Amino acid sequence: MSTLLQLDDVTVRLGLRTPLRGLSLQMAAGEFVAVVGPNGAGKSTLLRAITGELRCTGSVVFDGRARASWPRPALARRLAVMTQHPHLAFDFTVDEVVAMGRLPHRGAGAAADRAVVDAVMAELALQPFAGRAYLALSGGERQRVQFARVVAQIWQTDAPAMLLLDEPTSALDLAQQHSVLGLAHRMRARGTAVLAVLHDLNLASRYADRVLMLRDGAPCVLAPPTDAFTPERIAGVFGVSVECLRSARDGRPLVVTSPPPPHADGPR
User: Fold this and answer.
1) Which helix (H) or strand (E) holds 131?
2) What number is the average pLDDT over the span 190-218?
3) pTM higher than 0.90 for the full model?
4) What residue spans define the domains of the chain?
C-alpha cells in the first residue's frame, strides 16, 4: 500500500530538554506500528508532534501533504487520536460520547451518524452501556468508550485513515485488551494505519507489523516483532533480563521476564 505517514528527522525541544530527536518513520496505509520504550522515552511526545500539539523540527507529512497545511476539519475526518488521559467533565451518556467522534462529519446526516455509532458500539460490545452516564463508569469502561469515540471518527472514510493511540489498553482486563486491539488490527483491512503506544511487549508482539523502540528520545529499533524483541535488544532498552520464547501458533515472540539472580549472601 501507499505511504500514509512520513516523518523525517522529527525533533521536539522543550526548553533545555529534547524529549524526541532525529526520528524518521514511514508508515503504509493498513500498517500497525507499536511504539515501546521506558517511561520518559518520548513515546507520547511522538504522537503529540504528529498531531501538531507540540512544535517540532523536521517534517510530518500525511498522505503526501505536510500535516500543517491540512485544514483541521479535513484532517480530523482521517486522523483520530486517543490521548493517554482523555478528560470529559460533563455527564454525557455513553452513546453521546461515542457520537462525539462524528463531529468532523457534519452534514453526513443523523441517520448515517447513528449507524456508525451503533456499528462501533456493537464491535466493542458496548450496547448495554449506551444510556449509562459516562462519569459513572469504571476507568476501564471509560477507556473502551473513548476508543469507540475515536474509531467512530474514522469509521467511514473515502481514503485511508489513521489511528494514533496512546496506551489504549492501560486500564483494560485481558479480554478487553484484545477486543480493543483486535478491532484496531481488523481495521487495517480497510486501509487504516495504526500507531499505538503500548507498554505490554506481548501485546505489541501479537498485533504489530513493526515495532519502534525509543530510548532517551531517540529511535533505537524499528523492525518486525521477531527481530525487535530479542533478549539483547530488550535488555539494552529497558535494562532488564528477559527470555524471548516463540508462539507455537505463529512464531511471534513471547517476552518473559527472567527472575533476578539470587543474592550472593543467600536469602534474607
Assistant:
1) none
2) 97
3) yes
4) 1-78+157-229, 88-156
